[in-house]
Model the fold of this input.
Amino acid sequence: MTRMRRTDPLASPEEKFGRLRSILENLKEINHPYAARMAERGVRPEHIRGRGDLPLLPATTKYDLLRSYPTGWIAGERKEIARIHATNGTTGKPVIVACTAGDIRMWAENMAWCMGLSGVGEDDVVQISFAYGLFTGGLGYHYGAELLGAAVIPASAGFTDRQTILMKDLGATVLACTPSYALRISENLAGKGREGISLRLGFFGGETWSDELRGVLEKSLGIKAIDLYGLSEAMGPGVAAECPEQNGLHISDDFIAEILDPVTLEPKEEGEGELVLTSWSRRAYPLIRYRTRDLASLMTGSCPCGEPSPRMSRVRGRSDDMLIFRGVGVFPSQVEAAVCVVPGLSPSYQIRAWKENGLQNISFVCERAPDARPDDMPRAADELAKSVKNVTGAAIPFEILEPGGIPRSDGKTVRVLKQ
Ligand SMILES: [Zn+2]
Done:
């Protein structure tokens, strides 16, 4: 198995906290907005000596980053900045994220480590069907795969017919894209036949996806489907990844992960809560106790693969994605899980959410699978009603559309349509 060795390894927790203190010192010197937050609390860099001291530091929220738009959160000097990315916020201003050359190198090494856990190496042909551009998905995978010596096809997202032709003709062994785009690729292949496809692995991220969708993708594409987690505020993909054991995500050495109670913000050693990330090494764009809004838990025990890094669970959803329906909290990934297990339905779905008399109301649409018969749909509807009640605890109304009835996307799919 390929394991990435860092050019700048972090040996001990003492050394890591030393580096974190030097980042905090630098923020103080340059009057960074985070240093002002620390000063309000009376916290100084020298107070942070170990993991137990982290709760002294104020948490960073997306609002802090947006408030500093466009460049207020950037800590490096202009001449040190090598790259500027942005989150793909659909409304309003994006979060601008900057990197030094050293930050980009660390990103590449994180991604190479994450992909190396699944044995990606010089024999692989990696088709990257994440968008390239301001969005960090495409370039993150690109750097990681190149560092591992693989051959890279920078296909970017879109032109699905061309994607499947390239995949066959160039013998791609690894596919990287959003899980919803992987589904679209598999639908495209279903119409053409899978002969000549050499895929063995898929790396999927950028959206929350269920184990049930994993099962669908593994079967339809003939791959092992690996969850690889990241977010643009933390540079992009490369924060954590599954190994082939699919037994939680190994967290990259560059990050310290905490789980906080989303309401009290108290650290939780056990159980689910909000994932909060700190980077030891980010220079241009400090990431100190960043509240990701993603709900996950830290895992105990060791992974059979032998990799000793800490692990986190798969992300179940974002705390701000939860919809309240008749008093029950429902995550989009639960609706996905309920749809995926019903024979005769395609795994695509879309939730509609609207307010009625001040109360949240939701329904969803899904689709008949192209190879299922229309007269089989009453049975599928019965099964789906049971499955939805079973997974979410709520009787959410739904409609089954004809194949292709839900709009497809090349990148992140709109799973919840707010009306
Ligand atoms: Zn493992």
Q: What stands out?
A: The chain has two domains: 1-316, 322-418.
